[in-house]
Design a protein that fits this description.
Helices cover 30% and strands 23% of the residues. The longest helix has 14 residues. α7 packs parallel to α9. Bound molecules: shikimate-3-phosphate and phosphoenolpyruvate. Shikimate-3-phosphate (S3P) binds next to α3 and α5.
């Protein structure tokens, strides 16, 4: 199977159906982190069960946090944080960036490592910021994995200036733990714009829901007051970014797909999917049964700024490959720092099927061409696999190398996809 790849289902008509996706990765891992450093036990329902959340759970347990399952409820009980501990980050940005600021509150040494490619993902900005806030860190001067955090049981905190143009996760990481620092945190961003604004809003909203005072009124500045984080029983929203490939199937085949449980309001980047798919020419409605996307049978080329919703890019690129004219996806230079260099990977893999994709300084130009089948490489990137599956609906004999990489955020993806399109 691995050399041959997973045969992507090919359809010769409209894809129609209803899909229920599990919990949001980004909300799940924030809920786990915040519960772990809050003032009492929290009960979480709808928590995502996938590689990234399992790595987060193991990391927190290794620091002394209690996490137990009872039916569909996960109970997180804060404990006194301590090392020594070893944290496996896998390829999860939310683990490699969000856990070090928490480990800094532990008493003892916490060592971090991860997948081979995790060593390529930038860490220097967040490690440097933590040093400024009084934390001792050893990364051998590399600004990358592996690194260790030597905690003393408390962190001074205070003012820090950083360049978060490479990833919003550098800011979110400090926001999530900052209330537990003696002086809180006062973060200023200095550099090109910070991407992924919805994810920053998500961090701020989840802190406020737990009684933390966060001032983000001034652009590029976030001030978190020191104080307790209240425990909170909460239900996690479905992962709207993981809903994207299923909805895209309707857009490109002229079908109709409903995703259940779509929130009326959300801080997830997927909240922008209705607008994006409308731009491509689909009809989108939000009803009591969920969000329904209906393809019109025609996909319009688009010029889109995806800087706020970068993680949606691979699936959007796949939709653009079937448009009636060129598309330009902009504002996403930071995707070169994701699970793989997504701009290079999309260019290489689409073009290997006969496509015409070129990298821009900050994005991709996609000129639709007739595609032929072949083995699509995923580079251990779940969203490359989603993009390939979308292409495979309308391309003969497309095979996906390492479909198992979808386990990062949606282990059931192959069965769910076959169920909808097979
Ligand atoms: O905070 C988060 O949960 C995330 C922030 C974003 O990171 P970048 O700002 O690095 O793109 C996003 O792409 C990632 O999938 C999840
Ligand atoms: C960029 C992503 O993940 P991570 O949380 O590992 O940065 C993603 O899921 O698209």
């Amino acid at each position: 199977m691995s050399e041959q790849g997973w045969p992507a289902p090919r359809v010769d008509g409209a894809v129609n159906g209803t899909v229920t996706v599990p919990g949001s990765k980004s909300i799940s891992n924030r809920a786990l982190i915040l519960a772990a450093i809050s003032d009492g036990p929290s009960h979480l329902t709808g928590l995502l069960e996938a590689r990234d959340t399992s790595l987060m759970r193991s990391a927190l347990v290794s620091l002394g946090v209690g996490i137990t399952d009872s039916g569909t409820t996960v109970t997180v009980t804060p404990g006194s944080l301590k090392g020594p501990a070893n944290v496996d980050c896998g390829l999860a940005g939310t683990v490699m960036r969000f856990v070090p600021p928490v480990a800094a509150l532990a008493d003892g040494v916490v060592a971090f490592d991860g997948d081979e490619y995790a060593r390529e993902r930038p860490m220097g900005v967040i490690l440097g910021a933590l040093r400024t806030l009084g934390v001792q860190i050893d990364d051998g001067g590399t600004g990358r994995m592996p690194y260790s955090v030597s905690g003393t049981g408390s962190v001074r905190g205070g003012k820090v200036t950083l360049d978060a143009s490479g990833s919003s996760q550098f800011v979110s990481a400090l926001l999530l733990a900052g209330a537990r620092y003696d002086e809180g945190v006062d973060i200023r961003h200095d550099g090109k714009p910070v991407p992924s604004q919805p994810h920053l809003d998500m961090s701020v909203a989840m802190l406020r829901e737990r009684g933390v005072t966060v001032d983000d009124a001034e652009p590029n500045r976030w001030v978190v007051a020191p104080g307790p984080i209240r425990a909170l029983d909460t239900a996690i929203e479905p992962d709207l970014s993981n809903a994207a490939p299923f909805l895209a199937a309707a857009v490109i085949t002229g079908g109709s797909v409903t995703v259940t449980g779509w929130p009326a309001e959300t801080t997830q980047p997927g909240g922008q999917l209705p607008e994006i798919f409308t731009r491509f020419g689909a009809d989108v409605t939000l009803g009591t049964d969920g969000l329904t996307v209906r393809g019109s049978g025609r996909v319009q080329g688009c010029d889109l700024d995806l800087s706020e919703v970068g993680e949606l890019t691979p699936v959007i690129a796949a939709v653009a490959a079937f448009a009636d004219g060129p598309s330009y996806l902009r504002g996403i230079a930071h995707l070169r720092n994701h699970e793989t260099d997504r701009l290079a990977a999309l260019e290489t893999e689409f073009n290997a099927l006969g496509g015409d994709v070129t990298q821009l300084d900050d994005g991709l130009a996609i000129r639709p061409k007739s595609l032929q089948g072949g083995l699509f490489h995923t580079y251990n990137d779940h969203r490359m696999a989603h993009a390939a599956a979308v292409l495979g609906l309308l391309v003969d004999d497309l095979r996906i190398e390492n479909i198992g990489t979808t386990a990062k955020t949606l282990p059931a993806f192959p069965e769910m996809w076959s169920g909808l399109a097979g």
